[in-house]
Amino acid sequence: MPEENKPITETVVGVISDTHGLLRPEALDALRGSHLILHAGDVGTSSVLDALTAIAPVVAVRGNVDQDRWAETLPVTTTVEVGETTLYLLHDVGQLDLKPEAVGFSVVVFGHSHKPLSEMRGGVLFFNPGSAGPRRFKLPISVGRLRVRGTEIVPELLTLVG
């Protein structure tokens, strides 16, 4: 089939953050069917990443609580190519030291605040799945999903426990 006639396939990217060592069964269920999982830091324990890897390949960054030896190999930031898009992954968006639109990033994925967010800023999607770990204040327990088709990105925030 000629290249221009190939159908655009969808890539489902599961997004999770701030597990703090607690990987809820509801989070695992919500992430099933993902082709790739991004963990935006504050993982808590390596067993969280092991469990997520049983579902799909995982790309994770180090958060401020990830201080143990197992976390030393996690980068502070990273980029991920999905379809025709580039995603930038870090834990604390307050430490963003670049202009994502200037370097061609389509999405900035982050955590840290425990507050779910899906918001366009300057043509870039800023996406925080919220916290999937221990409840903080009265914030929901949540994860996210990005459906990527070529350059189109459809974000979803999934509340697991209100």
Descriptive notes:
There is one protein chain. This protein has 162 residues and is mostly beta strands. It has a single domain, classed as Metallo-dependent phosphatases (Purple Acid Phosphatase, chain A, domain 2, 4-Layer Sandwich), CATH 3.60.21. The protein has two helices and ten strands; from the N terminus they run βαβαββββββββ. The protein has helices spanning 25-31, 46-53; strands spanning 11-16, 36-39, 58-60, 77-82, 85-90, 107-109, 117-121, 124-128, 141-149, 152-161. A five-stranded mixed sheet has the order 3-2-1-9-10, with helices on one face. A five-stranded mixed sheet has the order 4-5-6-8-7, with no helix packed on it. A hairpin with a 2-residue loop joins strand 4 and strand 5 (85-90). The longest helix has 8 residues, at 46-53. The mean pLDDT is 94.
Task: Tell me, briefly, the overall form.
Answer: globular
| Backbone structural class | mainly beta
Approximately how much beta-strand content do the residues carry? 35-45%
Taking the alpha carbons of the first and last residues, their distance comes to: 47 Å
Q: What summary fits the major beta sheet?
A: 5 strands, mixed
CATH superfamily: Metallo-dependent phosphatases
What is the CA-based Rg, rounded?
15 Å
